[in-house]
Design brief:
The protein has 291 residues and is an alpha+beta fold. It has helices spanning 8-51, 183-186, 272-283; strands spanning 56-60, 65-66, 69-70, 80-81, 92-94, 99-103, 113-115, 129-137, 145-150, 154-159, 170-174, 187-191, 202-209, 214-219, 222-228, 246-248, 250-251, 254-255, 258-266.
Length: 291
């Protein structure tokens, strides 16, 4: 029996079909690898958060709310109430992960959250060490702009003007000191060296460890500044006011303007490696712009 071979034209068609099918398989494999890489990264970050969970004070992602109540997903129960600051679901926008909170932009003003369960704020009151972190998106370089604050205690700030003059933001703790130290002398701060005012997402972190007397700030996963407090002050523990809520987006009628997401607090000073991993979680969301 005679077997008819492929003509040149038919052979070219077959080769073209094989190439198309191979390309489709290659694309699917790459997409699967990409999805797996993202899933593994997110899982890795969750493991880091779980590892630090013993010292977690609160974690506010703004992905779960009921009216003006925004839930703390750390399990500590430090939910946030936005009713005093006229904040509700209408202020939710796209965040760096899921939803973020748009505060005091456009015609909005006076917006903030009050977090914690009165009268017992002990779960929000670190003693030996603290970490406060948040993702922010802003271009506002006016006035005094507070991201997350429990004063007296600790404060992460986007911008300070006037006598304070922290043009790139700062992180502060209220430190116990022997003798008759004034509140101003107990307030110990460290400034960020690098700005974040390009209306893109940036990860801001402040840490303090009383054992080492060290304050550190991180921007986008990298240490931006550090400061070791002078010796001879006493215990160096964090002094807390037991009567105050933690506020997000405001302190003493000074309001943050922009979008805030993924606010977290810990009663430990996270390491540079752990902070970098939290930053990677935001990168893997695909919404981060590094310009």
């Amino acid at each position: 029996m005679n077997q008819k071979g492929f003509t040149l034209s038919e052979l070219m068609v077959v080769i073209a079909v094989i190439m198309i099918l191979s390309g489709a398989v290659f694309i699917r494999i790459n997409e699967a690898r990409h999805r797996a890489k993202i899933a593994n990264g997110l899982n890795f970050s969750k493991q880091i958060s779980a590892k630090a969970g013993i010292g977690v004070m609160g974690a506010w992602s703004f992905d779960s709310n009921e009216g003006s109540i925004f839930y703390d997903f750390s399990g500590r129960g430090n939910d946030c109430d936005g009713s005093l600051g006229s904040v509700n679901g209408s202020d939710l926008v796209e965040g760096v992960v899921g939803q973020g909170l748009d505060l005091n932009t456009g015609s909005d003003s006076g917006e903030y959250l009050r977090c914690g369960v009165s009268p017992d704020f002990s779960s929000l009151e670190p003693i030996e060490a603290v970490t406060i972190e948040a993702w922010v998106k802003t271009d506002d370089q006016t006035g005094n702009r507070f991201i997350a604050t429990k004063w007296y205690g600790y404060s992460l700030e986007s911008y300070r003007s006037g006598g304070v003059n922290a043009p790139n933001g700062r992180f502060c703790v209220f430190v116990e000191r022997d003798g008759s130290a004034t509140p101003n002398e107990k307030t110990q701060c460290i400034q960020f060296n690098t700005g974040h005012f390009n209306n893109q997402w940036h990860h801001m972190v402040g840490t303090y460890n009383s054992d080492t007397r060290k304050l550190e700030v991180y921007l986008d996963g990298k240490k931006d500044n550090e400061r070791i407090l002078a010796s001879g002050w006493g215990s160096y523990l964090i002094e807390n006011s037991t009567a105050n809520y933690l506020t997000i987006g405001m302190y003493a009628s000074n309001y943050f303007s922009g979008v805030i997401d993924e606010v977290k607090g810990f009663k430990v000073a996270l390491s540079e490696t752990e902070i970098r991993k939290h930053y990677v979680q935001g990168l893997l969301s695909g919404k981060y712009v590094s310009d």
